[in-house]
UniProtKB/TrEMBL annotation:
It comes from the Bacteria. Residues 46-303 form the NADP-dependent oxidoreductase domain. Gene3D superfamilies: NADP-dependent oxidoreductase domain. This is Aryl-alcohol dehydrogenase-like predicted oxidoreductase.
């Protein structure tokens, strides 16, 4: 699989990465998550499943793995996998800013709680280091939104600058209909070298800001490329005539078209697969070998919906 640098020349990542949000905890809001896990939530079972998916990803050329403190045991699973498999060419990223509070249950709400305070950064940074050690390459603020005020916290920004001075690539992930505004605010600060944002065929509104970030030298990681399952065979949106025409023309499933569309964007360094099973991962990975023509990409723009409507629907998706 093709590699490229992320935020600096000596950090090489694969064009497709593996996100562990659906592998590290029983509850998540991807369509069909319960069915993917078959209701088997025992920690050892989930660890073996995560190892199977990570093994398959690495074998296929994936060299970027993405976790977060709020992804249940994702950092534990990833750290264990790194120690037992000892791959030397893998880059790992993780995120701080949300606290997992579901206690390994799917019937608890909320599943995670936002805390973007400087104190929580120090606490979660220590926890991440305990699990990933010096294998951690990228550390991001998790899901910055306009209400968090985290980009105006001078104390926190100073601590992030100190972290960057230690050799960790500091970044932020953004969420919500104002992603573009947040990315541009981050560009004003000489702290961040990586941005992770949602971009997909339904919600491409961060496009221009991501182009600006990429032009400024930031690494760009795209999340939710299949819109939490809405752009897979499970989603109603995947039945759109433009999507069906593309699938027929290229002989692939909607997830492959959706991820190939992300890879076609000039700002994309890495797009994450959020697969919870090996078959779904292998399907996603077909996007790395697919180049969509301009006519298809233009036709797929018909799937775009208003950003506020996208994020409202996303927030209403059930955690299963």
């Amino acid at each position: 699989m093709q590699l490229r640098s992320l935020g600096r020349r000596d950090l090489q990542v694969s064009r497709l990465g593996l996100g562990l949000s659906a592998l590290g905890r029983p509850g998540y809001f991807t369509l069909g998550h319960r069915e993917d896990l078959r209701g088997e939530y025992d920690v050892d079972v989930m660890r073996r499943r995560a190892f199977d998916v990570m093994d398959a990803a690495y074998e296929a050329g994936v060299r970027y793995f993405d976790a977060a403190r709020s992804y249940g045991r994702a950092e534990d699973f990833l750290g264990d996998w790194l120690r037992t498999r000892t791959p030397e060419d893998v880059t790992t990223g993780s995120k701080w800013g949300y606290v997992y509070v579901a206690d390994w249950r799917t019937d608890v709400w909320p599943q995670e709680v936002k805390d973007h305070s400087a104190d929580n950064f120090e606490r979660q940074w220590t926890q991440t280091r305990e699990r990933l050690g010096d294998r951690l390459g990228v550390y991001m603020i998790h899901s910055v939104t306009p209400d968090s005020n985290v980009l105006n916290d001078a104390t926190l920004l100073a601590r992030l600058e100190n972290l960057a001075a230690r050799g960790v690539l500091v970044g932020l992930s953004v969420s919500g209909p104002k992603q573009g505004d947040l990315i541009r605010r981050a560009l004003e600060l000489d702290v961040f070298r990586v941005v992770q944002a949602t971009w997909n065929l339904l919600e491409p509104s961060a496009d221009e800001a991501l182009r600006e970030a990429h032009a400024a030298g930031l690494g760009v990681i795209v999340k939710e490329g299949v819109a939490n399952g809405r752009l897979t065979e499970r989603g109603e949106e995947a039945k759109h005539p433009a999507m069906r025409a593309a699938c027929q023309a290229y002989g692939v499933t909607p997830d492959v078209i959706a991820l190939a569309a992300v890879l076609a964007q000039p700002f994309t360094d890495v797009v994450l697969s959020g697969a919870a099973t090996v078959p779904h991962l292998r399907s996603n990975l077909r996007a790395a070998d697919l180049t969509l023509d301009e006519a298809t990409l233009d036709a797929l723009k018909a799937l775009t919906i208003e950003p506020t409507a996208f994020w409202k629907a996303r927030s209403a998706m059930p955690w299963t």
